């Protein structure tokens, strides 16, 4: 198959590499010419613009977008739309909001597949997990490409109609937040608790046969190995948060209780409050009010 890939950053370059390694052809475009050169060095045909990329693809064009979610997807689709027809298919492999994907699927003349992609840049060797929504014929048609980008045939599936792929990925990310929080709390107690413990050793031991072994726990092991048991100078500021916010918003709309994911999202927001969180500072002062407990003051 010949695949157009637009967006050649951390994730898009992996899509290119894996598709090429599986003996397909790639035409590659990015706003950043250095990214295009890197894809060309890997064996892709470089394109100078979206129009150029489309012109280099055969009939029944298949195009994978791996640009940042939001405006970049809309800008790309605005350029692609007049160049494509109903026999063509576009995959959005980024973290788009599922409702935007439903709208885009209705607007675009070509078939639109919303594809949640999990595995991150670290998944380059193993392949990704792909959660795909949209027209079934387009999913079936692109199956050889999905086989190549995913861990294999078991690493992707058709989740349902338009939006279902990005919906499942959104919930996946909510679970990711809660798991990160659970590991974080466990290691926090171990680190602050009554024994002098080696966190890397604990993570490694848990990763070998324990009920709670997982890839995230392997990443904990790697973090303790590289940063030390006390995480060295790693700050407690956690960025991101968009996909977790969408998950919580959706749970409220569906009246489904997801307290762990909500708490994990809140912890992330709290980590960014400059100068300490107001409610904690007030609690500190109130304990003086009712109990004459010492007020801890800033240095
Ligand atoms: N990095 C990660 O762990 C994961 C990222 N994703 C999603 O994949 C998508 C891409 O993420 P990354 O590769 O990490 O981002 P990145 O920032 O590394 O790469 C984005 C690339 O898109 C290019 N680009 C931006 N606007 C463009 C446009 N209008 N036309 C052509 N090229 C354009 C940029 O020049 C850049 O090379 C995002 O939606 C992200 O949320 C999904 C799963 C994991
Ligand atoms: O999708 C991912 C992992 O599964 C990406 O790492 C994504 O960038 C996470 O974003 P955020 O932390 O803002 O939700």
Structure description:
By secondary structure, the protein is an alpha/beta fold. The protein has 2 domains: 2-162, Rossmann fold (3-Layer(aba) Sandwich); 169-193 and 235-283, no CATH class. The protein is built from 13 helices and 8 strands. Helix 5 links the parallel strand 5 (89-92) and strand 6 (111-118). Helix 1 (10-21) packs parallel to helix 2 and helix 9 packs antiparallel against helix 10 (215-227). The longest helix has 29 residues, at 164-192. The radius of gyration is 23 Å and the shape is elongated. The site of ribulose-5-phosphate has 10 residues, from helix 8 and helix 11. Ribulose-5-phosphate (5RP) binds at residues 95, 118, 120, 173, 176, 240-244. Keywords: Gluconate utilization, NAD, Oxidoreductase. It holds the Pfam family 6PGD. One of its GO terms (molecular function) is phosphogluconate dehydrogenase (decarboxylating) activity. Belongs to the 6-phosphogluconate dehydrogenase family.
């Amino acid at each position: 198959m010949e695949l157009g890939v637009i967006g050649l950053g951390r994730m898009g370059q992996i899509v290119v590499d894996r598709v090429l390694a599986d003996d397909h052809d790639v035409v590659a475009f990015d706003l950043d010419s250095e990214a295009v050169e890197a894809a060309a060095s890997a064996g892709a045909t470089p394109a100078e613009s979206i129009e150029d990329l489309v012109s280099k693809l055969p009939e029944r064009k298949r195009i994978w977008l791996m640009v940042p979610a939001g405006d970049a997807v809309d800008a790309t689709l605005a350029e692609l739309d007049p160049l494509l027809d109903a026999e063509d298919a576009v995959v959005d492999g980024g973290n788009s909001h599922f409702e935007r994907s439903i709208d885009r699927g209705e607007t675009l003349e070509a078939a639109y597949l919303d594809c949640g992609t999990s595995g991150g840049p670290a998944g380059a060797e193993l392949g990704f997990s792909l959660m795909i929504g949209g027209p079934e014929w387009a999913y079936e048609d692109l199956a050889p490409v999905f086989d190549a980008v995913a861990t294999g045939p078991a690493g992707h599936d058709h989740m349902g109609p338009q939006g279902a792929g990005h919906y499942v990925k959104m919930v996946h990310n909510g679970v990711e937040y809660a798991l990160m929080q659970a590991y974080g709390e466990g290691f926090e107690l171990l680190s602050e608790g009554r024994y002098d413990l080696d966190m890397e050793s604990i993570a490694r031991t848990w990763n070998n046969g324990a009920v709670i072994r997982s890839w995230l726990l392997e990443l904990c092991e790697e973090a303790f190995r590289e940063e030390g048991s006390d995480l060295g100078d790693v700050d407690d500021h956690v960025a991101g948060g968009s996909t977790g916010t969408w998950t919580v918003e959706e749970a409220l709309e569906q009246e489904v209780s997801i307290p762990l994911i909500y708490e994990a999202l809140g912890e992330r927001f709290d980590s960014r409050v400059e100068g300490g969180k107001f409610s904690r500072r007030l609690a500190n002062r109130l304990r003086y009010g009712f109990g004459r407990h010492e007020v801890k003051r800033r240095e």
